[in-house]
Amino acid sequence: MHASLRVTSDGQHREVKSGNNTHNHPVTHELYMHLPHQRKMSDETKKTASKLMEIKVNKKILQQELTLQTGKVILLRDLTHLSSLAKNDKTRNNLEQTVTILQDKYGATVEVVTDEKKTVQGLKLFFQDKFMQMSYQAYPEILFIDATYKLLELRLPVYIIACEDSAGRTEVVAVYLLVTEDKTSLKCMLESFKKHNHSWESTRVFTSDKDIKERDAIIECFPHVALLICLFQAMRSFRREITVDKLGITPGQRLFSLELVHKMAYAKSARDYDQLHEQLVANCPKNVINYFDTNWHPIRAQWTMGMKFSTGCFMNTTNNRLESFNSKLKSVIDRYSSLENLLENNFIILTALRTERDHTAAIQVQKVTICSQPEDSPVFKYRSQLTSYAANFVVEQISLASNVSNRRSR
Hints:
Mean pLDDT: 87
Number of helices: 19
């Protein structure tokens, strides 16, 4: 269809000169519904769709549901566009708003250190809610620290500090974000942790990876603790560093060296370790010996299994607890999310874990474990005082002690 217009003789109006209202294409209801102004969603529908997109509803299922509710043609690209608009929100990664959310919504203790311009580029953000503080106050003996990456579009690493409770579960006790992973920044955040947690002097063990900056900061802030290295990360470092290319050794020499180092990591005592170290010095290439003696031998008490247990680490040899928590975070937080989205979803995970923890504790209180031992027996006394998790370890040792016999030397 088309229409031709012209100006009237007085020059004040326009009039139709000729017209044709015959369409040059089929005219059907189905085609009409695909026109842009017909596909446009109402503000209420957009709000509902955006909210569902935030919780990662399947787009195709959402498309079908919205189509049934509104009777409109909803395209997948329309939903993608709504998601993009949310990411480009002007309030995204707003530091002041983030602090307000933490304090008002979650009642968290927050400490922020920024550069002179107060921009995110100089950010050091520490936060801890009351449940984190209570957990650390109750179980301060051992702490685990690790960083996870690719959660924030600002490219900030997210550091998690956790402890172990009396039931063997992991309790997150602090979270902090850093722009620069240098010793000064790490030390600043650890000092913030100490300032808000007076139980820090009761911490006996700190488990981390072998990052020098991180370890140095921990040693300076917690000089009285035993610093341990995650065994899994130690073994991974051995595999990465003891290689044919880096040390100029043969594949056979590499395999032999790694097997020997593996045995040293699981040595049950300092004596066993020393014997294995003598074999390494006698049989391994010089480059391997130099690398090992420079980087690992001086700190053998921090990564060797048998020596770790004497520190009171509650039989923890790895940072798998935090690896597990980090994987849970990544299951609900998209890569490169906003600061606000990270915090919201972080507390979603924490709330879910705390609910499961409280339920398990409630069941344990409601269902008293029946002990077949006499009331005056050590087993009965331990089970009446300890959690089931802790008591099982003690009872196991008691049963093993019955198999030990003392023989007098002749």
